[in-house]
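Dear colleagues,

As part of the handover before I leave the project, I'm documenting each prediction I ran so the next person doesn't have to rerun anything. This entry is a single chain, and its sequence is reproduced below.
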Amino acid sequence: MSLPSFLLEILVCPECRAPLAEEIQDDTHELRCTGAACGLVYPVRDGIPVLLVDEARRPS
């Protein structure tokens, strides 16, 4: 399930304030920071973005 486009337009990375890009692969739904220096990946659980830096992972 994709997030509404109006929501993606206003969401930013809480770490660096860069826009977030939605990524959906199989059963994994995430929001990836588009900032070159940051790149944190935030989970989306039950359709709700979890925008906590402590819950984010560094890209592999």
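The CA atoms of residues 28 and 50 lie 13 Å apart. The longest strand covers residues 20-25.

All the best with the project,
I.
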